């Protein structure tokens, strides 16, 4: 099993940890890590080596003879072209991955497992890297937002007078949203949250936040996910939620629909009605943004309101994020490997669901269509 150094800018995580390496070795694997791969997550070469990894100085020697490559980010076209022919790959691999990468994976006859495609069933919870990383993103979104607010979050009753707690609104109460609610509550804010899934109501309330009912008939999704709502629904939703947005100091948006553009919940007109000094942290920035003004990876100032569309917040907490991701990797690899060999049972829901390509054949329909059309899928 090869673990190369990540090359995407800002990516500070690693797919293994000193904790996970003995586990991987127990599956019969030799774990070969490129030197420096864990440095930014504070997993130093010596610690990885002491845990049982073989450290190698460069990418070619890391990949040489590998039957399985485990990474955080999807490979670039160049990295995909360097993978050993016929090897297996485990990493984040969204269905929106570029056809150029897919084409290389096909050419190299790669068998690729995608964390985005791991079915969200109880049996696969230990492999659910989307959840482990979303939860870190939700936590960090509140810290980032709080640090940019010109106010404090908790109630203060002092001789200098009483300061009211800040108001935080969380839009989308899935894994990231629930962690954002819990974090904002711990910091003493008054928290409200909204979601289109009725099941979210009880979860929001159990965290001590108020659920903002929008009294609209939402389309129910499948597998615990939301489904895409009509434009009429979203327009009405924006009207109903506008006052809650205006009164909030910090808005954290996490609303997403798998495989679709994120719904726009905050228009630029609504941002103009917000109080100066307010902050929006848009966790949906990479899929189009929940705020109309969001620009992925950037900070936008609009009439005294700060809109943060920063990408990849989990990578800004690299030690914890890698610790959790490494466990997810070990759980998925443990499911696929028996006595050092890849043993794939396509009758198994986890193996079949998470396998995007098998021996160079694209199994995922969206990815297949994208390669056939020569452009990225929606
Ligand atoms: N193993 C499991 O069983 C498992 C694992 C992880 C998550 N889940 C469940 O899956 C669900 C979604 O998880 P996620 O966080 O990955 O979701 P996600 O990232 O796809 O979406 C985030 C949230 O946005 C919400 N949303 C979508 N459109 C919206 C709109 N127009 N307005 C407001 N909110 C909107 C969704 O309902 C969801 O709660 C949750 O119920 C979660 O508990 C189950």
Write structural notes for this entry.
It contains 13 helices and 19 strands. The protein is an alpha/beta fold. The protein has two domains: 2-128 and 318-373, 3-Layer(aba) Sandwich (Rossmann fold), CATH 3.40.50.720; 134-311, NAD(P)-binding Rossmann-like Domain (Rossmann fold). Strands 11-10-9-12-13-15-14 form a seven-stranded mixed beta sheet, covered by helices on one side. It has a five-stranded mixed beta sheet with strand order 4-5-6-18-19, with helices on both faces. A three-stranded parallel beta sheet has the order 1-2-3. α7 links the parallel β9 (167-171) and β10. It is globular and about 65 Å long. The mean pLDDT is 95. The site of nicotinamide-adenine-dinucleotide has 32 residues, from α6 and α7.
Explain the layout of strands and helices.
Blueprint: E1 2-3, H1 20-26, E2 32-34, H2 45-50, E3 54-56, H3 59-63, E4 68-70, H4 77-82, E5 88-91, H5 99-107, E6 111-114, H6 129-148, E7 156-158, E8 161-163, E9 167-171, H7 175-186, E10 190-194, H8 200-206, E11 210-211, H9 231-246, E12 250-253, H10 268-272, E13 279-282, E14 299-302, E15 305-308, H11 318-336, E16 337-338, E17 341-342, H12 349-354, E18 355-358, E19 361-362, H13 365-373
Parallel strand pairs: 1-2, 2-3, 4-5, 5-6, 9-10, 9-12, 10-11, 12-13, 13-15
Antiparallel strand pairs: 6-18, 7-8, 14-15, 16-17, 18-19
Helix pairs in contact: 1-11, 6-7, 6-11
